[in-house]
Sequence to fold (292 residues):
Amino acid sequence: MTSEPAADNHATHDCRRYIDNLSDYADGTLDDDLCRELETHMEHCENCRVVVNTFTKTVTLYHQLPAPEIPNTVRERLYKVLDLREFRPEDDE
Amino acid sequence: MTQADDAALVARLQAGDQTAYAQLVEDNASRIYRLALRMMGNEEDAEDVLQETFLSAFKAIDKFQSRSSLSTWLYRIASNAALMRLRKKEPVQVSVDEPIERDDGDTLPRQFFDFCCLPEETLLRDEAHEEMKRAVDELPVTLRSVFILRDIEGLSTEETANALDLSISAVKSRLMRARLKLREELSTYFARYGNGAQN
Ligand SMILES: [Zn+2]
Fold:
């Protein structure tokens, strides 16, 4: 079972305020005072702790998402459409 | 690429040097394709956006001003091309000026499963990656474009604002909403594995 029933307790005024600042926290750009405040709050508020941790983890996981490569055929067709095939730099990779 | 490299390349581009055009393509095709693929969600449209981006860029190169870098400028052209196409496809859902600062009831956390401590092989398995991509595809396009540029392509807030013609605060609030929605989706997905469904 997921811990859904706790949702009601979570929407306190304080929690809402921290949620508004989650992005800055995850990016490490939240100002120091608020950051300390949030971390203290997290010690007592299980839901915020989970939300903050999973929010940060979500951002990290997306940063690590493998990048799709452009297929060679797509690259070749691009040069052709642009009429630049003869100017294509040597493949030095 | 440094600013000086950029300036030298721009000068050659504006002089009509074909080798410089090819260089611009070589340096940027891969990231523009990536952006297009993530915005459009399929390879065919992504290729169209890719081609359109460079065709438009070559036409507009005379108007390029070095207030932004060449790569941000290309992101901007590509984002516009993608948004235009998406609007044709889903005209109701996609409006660039859509006032999205509505009540944020839809972004309030509801899912409190802590997936942080799941083993790496669960978090990083192919299926999880597919789920992550699906979740991005399902974001409203106004949030998706910001999220892709900021968190997947790694642009700064300023560069993203520049590429999408948005204010800094709009980028921040859209990014926030996108991340909250994705957190919710991933929590729901991973909760299934944390509750004995691991395999
Ligand atoms: Zn709280």
